[in-house]
Design a protein that fits this description.
Largest sheet: none
């Protein structure tokens, strides 16, 4: 039982820790101390839904409808490109780097949901790959594996969001903001190009 749970935890963390659009956004919101609880909760719940869906067998359904992934690919690429441009603009305009210009809760929630669900790699990695790994464990053990993967998501997003918030005082200088925005813009742009190129 613990071996299966640990395998799920390791697989979940291996897939989620890689720097991506969602992680970059959680990091930025944590540093800004802006709606961190909502961002962490939405990312975690989104991951849980996708992991449990994959474990329940939705991964096979996703694989049978490549057209849906194609639509997500182009929508995700457009959104990521827009976000990259926005980050680069923030990096060259000091006024927008200040933490006293907060975004609304609604816009942060919208961005979190878009970065969570408009990325087709999320479905391939979380639903198809983790779902396949979970189902290889057998009918009973697959849910133990899924619980391990879910635990990884809860731990990772909480540590990333609240850890960044705890360090926000150290990381709040304009120079740090500029670096953060440049890195986030570069990550978003690379991911957008990768989505377009397939």
């Amino acid at each position: 039982m613990w071996g299966t749970w640990s395998a799920g935890l390791a697989a979940g963390l291996a897939l989620i820790i890689a720097i991506g659009a969602q992680n970059a956004f959680v990091l930025r919101q944590g540093i800004r101390r802006e709606h961190v609880a909502a961002v962490v909760a939405l990312c975690t719940v989104g991951d849980i839904v996708l992991i449990l869906g994959g474990t329940a067998g939705i991964g096979a359904l996703v694989s049978r409808f490549p057209g849906a992934l194609e639509v997500l690919r182009w929508a995700g690429a457009a959104y990521l490109a827009w976000w990259a441009v926005r980050s680069f603009v923030s990096a060259v305009r000091p006024a927008s780097l200040k933490a006293d210009a907060p975004r609304s809760r609604r816009s942060v929630i919208t961005a979190t949901l878009a970065l969570t669900f408009l990325n087709p790699h999320v479905y391939l990695d979380t639903v198809v790959l983790l779902g396949s790994l979970a189902n290889q464990q057998g009918p009973g053990a697959r849910w133990i594996f899924a619980t391990g993967a879910v635990t990884g998501s809860v731990v990772w997003f909480s540590a990333l969001g609240y850890g960044a918030r705890a360090l926000s005082g150290v990381l709040s200088s304009p120079r740090t903001w500029r670096v953060v925005d440049l890195v986030i813009g570069a990550v978003m742009l690379v991911l957008a190009v990768n989505l377009v190129l397939g």
